[in-house]
Structure formats: structure tokens, C-alpha cells
Amino acid sequence: MIPPGFFSLQPPDIEALKAARDSKGLIRLLGHRNFDIQWRSADALGSLGTTATLPLIAELDHENTAVRLGAIEALGTIRDQRALKPLTFLLEHDQNVEVRWVAAIALGSLGLPEATGPLTRALKDPDRYVRYGAAQALRTLSWEPANDMNRAYYTIALEDWTETARLGAAATVPLIESLRDHDAASRVKIVELLSGISDPRAHRACELLLKDPDSTVRWKATLAAKSCGVPVTHLPWGLSKRPRAGQNPYAAAVLNFLFFGQGYNYLGYWWGSLVFMSYLSILVLTQLQLGPFVPYLIAYPVTALFAVQTFFIAKKKQDM
Fold first, then answer.
1. CATH topology of domain 161-239
2. How far is Cα 148 from Cα 225, in angstroms, rounded to an integer?
3. What is the pLDDT of residues 111-166, one digit of tens each?
């Protein structure tokens, strides 16, 4: 669907729509190609008050992310308690990070104590932005953690690492759960904190981090191993369990067998393309002399040897 006003050269009159209290017209502009018009429309919708609540709630499942974001922002400004449940649903179920993030902020803006439940659960979200939005919303609601573990989730969400470290063993479980974070930099910081906690659960987590998909996290876990109580002999074993990020040896071998030279190119050797072009030229010239099939009968036994060589080259390449 083409957003409204996509081909229009004349900017929409948002003030006129606002004066006319035309919520439907303003909602249509939430999907406009111009970001300035999007946020001004959301701002205008927020000024309409509770009369715009239900039309905005109806747009929360819109396929266009910009429309959903604008509707959530407007609902946060209106502060109608009818928005509590739909905003909670978005916070807990929407797949889009930005939507969950702004939903958390909007829930805080409602000023309702009932919002603290979903917001405290959002402190465990795997995305740092959503966690941060939930923590800021809880701060807006003057929420206070009931115990040190809840405080740890809260300080981790705010990335207040000094306060998190002060909590000691009470922060172990929240820190371990936060290792689901998609951001490698956050996981690196969590490794540092876990290495300073005298808790067997923290030590076990440090050992598991040796197989983290990110090489920086793995290296930080290796450096922290001594502080975590991980035996030095366990380091190679733990690292051997990591996901392999390097090139596939089988793919390299097949490429060199069928298209000699391309297997080297796949492994990152710049001269692989030159080898392939030379191989192709020789193949074409030989076909002109011997016919279309004979050159392949000669070439494939030779490229098979190079395919085996390529396989072992790929196996030896390090991806630590």
C-alpha cells in the first residue's frame, strides 16, 4: 500500500486537521513518507484527548511500523486508561524492538500503578533498548524494587553497572539472564561483573561464555576465567564448543572441484579469481581442440585433488 501523500507536492495542513479534530485524517498521516509529518501528526493526535483513543487503539496492529509507533506515542500523551491493555500486549508480544520500546515509555506515561507489572517483566527483555525504556517508565511511576534481585534487574536495564556490582550475589541470576542480550558489548560488561562475584553460579556462567557467538565476548571470558574460578585446562575445551563462524570446508571443496579457483576466492584469497579465469580460458581453448566433453574428463580428476587440498586449508583456518 502506498502511504498517503506519497506523490503529493503540497504538504498536508496538520493544523487544519487538528482544528477540525479530524483524528482519521491525522492517523492517515502517521504513514507519510516524511518523518517530520509523522511526528507532527502524532503530536496533534495526542492533543485531541480521549476522543482519539479508540481510533488510535484500532491502529496498533497496523502493518506499517511508523503508524504503530505514532499511535503509541499519541496514546502515551493522551493518558487514557483504556490504552493500558493494548499497550501491554504490544510490550509483551510485538516482534519489533522500536514498538516494544515506545510501548514501555507510553505505559509509564499513563501514570497507572497497574502498568508496573508488565514493565517489571520487561526489565528481562532480551533487547537493551526495551529494558532501558521499561526502567525509565518505572522511574516515572516512582516504582521501588521490592528486593535486591529486582533492583539488580532494574540497574542492569539502566546499565548502572556500579550499582549492579554493589549488589553482589543478588545480581548473579539477573546478570546470567541478561546474557541473552543481542548486543555483544552488553555481554562483555556482564562477563566483567560476573567475574567479580563470589558465586558458583557466576563461575559456571563464565565457563559457558567461552562458547559465545561473539569473539570479543569469548576473549573477555578467557581473560576473566581465573577470576571466575574456571580451570585453565577447561579453556580450550570450552572454546571448542563455540559456533563456527568461518567458511564451510565442504563448500570450499565443491567450489574448487566444479569451478577451480573459486574455492580459494571463497576462503578470502584474492588470487582465486585469477586462477578461475585462467582455468576457464584453458578449458575453452581445449574444448575447441578436443571437443566439448574430453576437457572435463581431464580437468575433474585434477580439480578433485585441489578440492581435497582446499578442504584441509579451510579446516585449518582459525575463527577464534
1. Leucine-rich Repeat Variant (1.25.10)
2. 26
3. 999 999 999 999 999 899 999 999 999 999 999 999 999 999 999 999 999 999 99
Which residue in this structure is represented by grid cell 585449518?
Answer: 316
**Cβ atoms within 10 Å of 247's Cβ, excluding its own:** 18
Domains of the chain by residue range: 161-239, 249-316
Q: What is the pLDDT of residue 143?
A: 95
Q: H-helix or E-strand containing 48?
A: none
The answer to whether the Cα torsion of 108, 127, 90, 27 is positive or negative is positive
CA distance 124 to 79: 25
Report the Cα–Cα distance between both ends of the chain, in Å, rounded.
46
State pLDDT tens for residues 180-225: 888 888 888 888 888 888 888 877 777 777 777 777 888 787 777 7
Contacts of 289 by beta carbon, 8 Å cutoff, 6+ apart: none
Residue carrying C-alpha cell 501528526: 41
Calculate what percentage of the chain has a pLDDT beyond 90.
40
Question: Stretch 161-178: mean pLDDT, rounded?
Answer: 91
pLDDT value at position 2? 53
Does 54 have pLDDT greater than 80? yes
Chain center to CA of 143: 28
Report residue 301 as a C-alpha cell: 580428476
What's phi and psi for 17, nearest 5 deg? Answer: -65, -40
Q: Which residues contact 4 (CB under 8 A, 6 or more apart)?
A: 28, 29, 31, 32
Compute, in degrees rounded to 10, the torsion defined by CA atoms 108, 114, 116, 122.
-90
Nearest of 250, 253, 279 to residue 264 by alpha carbon: 253
H/E run at residue 206: helix 200-208
* C-alpha 25: how far from chain center: 34
Residue 225, C-alpha cell as written in the block = 576465567
| Contact present, 54 and 46 (Cβ < 8 Å) | no
